[in-house]
From TrEMBL, chain A:
InterPro entries: DUF5723
Domain DUF5723: 40-457
Name of this protein: DUF5723 domain-containing protein
Domain of life: Bacteria
Leader sequence segment: 1-20
Keywords: Signal
Organism taxonomic ancestry: Bacteria, Pseudomonadati, Bacteroidota, Flavobacteriia, Flavobacteriales
From TrEMBL, chain B:
Species whose genome carries this gene: Flagellimonas pelagia
Signal peptide residue numbers: 1-22
PROSITE patterns: PROKAR_LIPOPROTEIN (PS51257)
Top-level taxon of the source organism: Bacteria
Protein name: Uncharacterized protein
UniProt KW keywords: Signal
């Protein structure tokens, strides 16, 4: 029991050390090949690139719009229950969430078409874990305070339970085409291989205890709730059996699911970059428009119905001859019957969290020489209007993401500085539901063919990471060529 | 010069990323978390019209029933109950003086505790009794060992009088409000 409590608490609170999916630093940072993953239509200048397997792209994000680790676990001498009451129960709303996203790029390769130098092809594989748990405010208050005392008459919203999570391996292939000196478009097809998925996102209902017309209290419940899982039970069963081969069995099942042995899905990304003027560019992209069809290892739990009870009731003279003394058990049976709950293995479709980016960039400060003189980048290579010529960029970005409770948005202002071919920096300021003080910094370093990049968000919080509402770190290594060497 | 500045800045940032820190956290505080909800529920409701009381005759018992009641001795309740109050409310609009008793019985049928309510004839008004269990009140063991309830309702008046109230009835209500320690 205690272990289970720790696990639940760890999932809820630990999630914000690693989370939201906005990659505002990477977006349109076209010196980094992984920028293709957030806009397939980003301007590409490479001849080819190869990500160093497993370490070409590692990203970890964690966010909480409500309480932080430090709010609860700081060694401040304040009673822990008081902190939970004042910093969680009293202030967090059903719109607050804990979320986490991590990505590990298995491999990525990009190359320019031999016969069509306008096209840049890229393919690869990456794993992604994404979990979001909305704060179940009413259920938490019900658990901490109960339905009695001041909560008589309160309507507890069962729809406050809302969570979604998945681990998926993605195989992708994308084409980036320079249509003209001003327009680049791109698209990427994705094949999703689900490792596990769970969601409980369409719950509704209420639980309420009021003063009754007959008895002192009447308790009413109306519920339509469902938890859908796919791929979870297989792992659970292995862990539950706890045989001597548990680790091997988990690894084997994980590997099978990674390599298309589990539930599969399809999706695509699309994007563009358009140069309005020689110095002004607009971009946009949509990512993960796709779904996974979950029909293997499915286990769902449902709970629905409605009833009310005021306890055991006897009405005379109607019940005068009822000598049955099992009234309590009958009451329990009646409630069970009115609130059917059960398990099923029905297939379901889960949609990927769709993301969209848009940006406008203004380039200035002529550098005197083209950063990518030797690029094999087709129709707009070497043109006088190539914005790579400019050493500075400034602009704004908009990010939107479909979440179970609606669209989550973030607005970013950025400044980018290029120091020749070898080094470029990008700094961002982002506002979203998690933070109004999110300043990020990204660095891209090119040493010969070796490319290294590191992107870090919410730097002001690094003085005390535990007090951060948002943390993001991404880094990776690539080999890039701009010519035939 | 400018280049050196930015390179320095760059290394400073990398250094900062690697040297980020956090204030000391004490995750052991979780052990101190106290979760004590108050749960409220209706328990037992009985109502009778005046004709049924008259049918029982003078000093007759018009309702006597022992019902199985395992709500309190469920393992969860027995293990987590800290204290509680059982509230009884009686409204009598009949012309009868009544006596209602409720007894808490263990599995073998032995009486663990009981309450006796003498009710005046109409107008009795709303009569309320609150019985506390736990510290300062009756023993929680009574609740934890209760397996049956016996309710007995007796007419202490004649068998012919009729109240002038429309639809005269006696209503016996009860509810529990218990404080649990979940953690």
């Amino acid at each position: 029991m205690r272990l289970r409590s720790y696990l639940v608490f760890s999932v809820l609170l630990g999630s914000f050390t690693i989370s939201a999916q906005n990659k505002e630093l990477l977006y349109d940072f076209y010196e980094i090949p992984q920028a293709l993953m957030v806009n397939p239509g980003v301007k590409t200048s490479e001849k080819w690139h190869v990500g160093i397997p497993v370490i070409s792209g590692l990203s970890f994000q964690g966010a909480t719009s409500g309480v932080t680790v430090n709010d609860l676990f700081a060694n401040d001498g304040i009673d822990f229950t008081t902190k939970v009451q004042e910093r969680v129960l009293d202030v967090m709303t059903r719109k607050d969430d804990f979320s986490t996203t991590s990505q590990i790029e298995g491999f990525t390769i990009g190359f320019r078409g031999r016969n069509r130098p306008d096209d840049y092809y890229s393919f690869g594989m990456y794993g992604e874990t994404d979990v979001i748990v909305y704060w179940p405010k009413d259920l938490a208050i019900l658990a901490f305070e109960g339905n009695g005392g001041n909560n008589i008459g309160r309507r507890f919203d069962l729809g406050d339970l809302n969570l979604r999570g998945e681990m998926v391996n993605v195989f992708h292939f994308g084409v980036n085409r320079k249509m003209s000196n001003t327009l680049t478009v791109g698209a990427r097809a994705k094949l999703y291989s689900s490792i596990f998925q769970f969601q409980s996102i369409k719950n509704s209902g209420t639980f309420r205890t009021t003063e009754g017309q007959d008895n002192i209290y009447v308790t009413s419940i109306s519920a339509d709730m469902q938890l859908q899982t796919a791929g979870v039970k297989g792992f659970y069963d292995i862990l539950e059996e706890d045989t001597g081969t548990t680790r091997k069995d988990v690894t084997s099942l994980f590997t099978e699911r990674v390599l298309l042995g589990g539930n599969l899905g399809l999706g695509f990304d699309a994007g563009f970059s358009y140069q309005l003027t020689p110095q002004t560019t607009i971009t946009g992209s949509v990512l993960d428009i796709g779904f996974i069809y979950n029909n293997k290892d499915v286990w769902n739990y449902t709970f629905s119905g409605s009833t009310s009870t005021q306890g055991i009731s006897v009405y005379l003279p109607e019940d005068i001859d009822n000598l049955d003394n099992n009234l309590w058990q009958e009451l329990i049976d009646d409630i069970d019957e009115a609130l059917p709950h059960g398990e099923n293995t029905s297939s379901y479709i889960s949609f990927r969290p769709v993301k969209a980016y848009g940006s406008i960039r203004y380039d200035f400060g002529e550098g005197g020489n083209n950063t990518f003189d030797n690029c094999g980048c087709g129709v707009n290579a070497g043109g006088g209007g190539n914005q790579d010529f400019y050493r500075n960029s400034i602009g704004g970005q908009l990010f939107m993401m479909k979440r179970p409770r609606g669209v989550q948005a973030a607005l970013t202002g950025f400044y980018q500085k290029r120091f020749g071919r070898g080094l470029s920096l990008k700094t961002t300021y982002t506002i979203d539901k998690y933070s109004f003080t999110n300043v990020g910094l990204g660095l891209n370093l090119q040493a010969g063919p070796v490319n290294f990049y590191v992107l870090g968000d919410n730097l002001l919080s690094y003085a005390n990471v535990a007090d951060s509402h948002y943390a993001f770190l991404q880094f990776g290594f690539n080999i890039i060529s701009w010519n035939d060497n | 010069m400018k280049r050196s500045f930015y390179l320095l800045l760059c290394f400073a940032v990398v250094l900062m990323l690697s040297q980020s820190c956090t204030e000391q956290q004490d995750f052991g505080q979780f052990e101190d978390l106290s979760i004590t909800p108050t749960l409220a529920t209706g328990l037992f409701y009985m109502e009778s019209d005046e004709a049924t009381i008259n049918d029982a005759g003078t000093f007759g018992t018009f309702y006597a029933q022992t019902v199985n009641f395992d709500a309190f001795n469920e393992e969860f309740v027995a293990d987590h109950l800290i204290e509680g109050t059982i509230t009884y409310e009686i409204v009598n609009t009949t012309s009868k003086q009544l006596r209602i008793t409720i007894e808490y019985l263990d599995e073998a049928g032995n009486t663990l505790d009981g309450e006796l309510f003498n009710i005046d004839a109409d107008p009795s008004g709303l009569m309320t009794w609150e019985v506390a269990y736990g510290p300062g009140g009756k023993s929680l063991d009574i609740l934890a060992n209760t397996s049956n309830l016996r309710l007995t309702a007796t007419n202490l008046s004649d068998a012919i009088s009729v109240s002038s109230q429309p639809e005269p009835k006696v209503k016996f209500k009860s509810a529990a409000e218990f404080l649990f320690r979940l953690k």
